[in-house]
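Record YceI family protein, 191 aa.
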Amino acid sequence: MKKWLSVLALAILSNAVMASDWQVNNDQSIISFISVKKENIAEIHRFNNVDGKLTESGTFSLIIDLSSVNSGIEIRDERMQSLLFEVAQFPKLTLKAAVNPKLLESLVIGEMLTTQVDGEIELHGQKVTKTFDVVVAQLSADKMLVTSLKPVIVQAQEFGLVAGVEKLRDIAGLSSISLAVPVSFVVTLTK
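=>
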């Protein structure tokens, strides 16, 4: 009888863990992008504040605080916030996606899977759907890692950002800034 109760308690606990939502761990997640200026000078930037969750039904949401952009140069961060992202009017980027919950349920600790996820990005008042090639790794019962298999290319014109790029180019006295930006991510989810 004691053994049966232990098995029952373990099953209930296991189902409770499986049924809870996964939260994005900001300290262990990195969303980065590369800008190219003067045709061949590439620089890596990142966002310091991200939030989001993955529900048991497979609904994924990610919120990026655009005022947390970090290029390593304070004046450039301020210019990107005000001239490019226009954070006073558009403070956040949101991503919404649906993930097949059966894919995640089948993952065992230490296992990885490669898949594609369609997600809707809302940025600067525009919504665009993109396909993300991702690798998902189950690190432990309460920790999962989702990373880009390859960068996602974001085009400035898709989100009405061309004028902002031109303002940045003009104020910095640059001959060019690329309108195509590769974005990569490593997102850690915890229960």
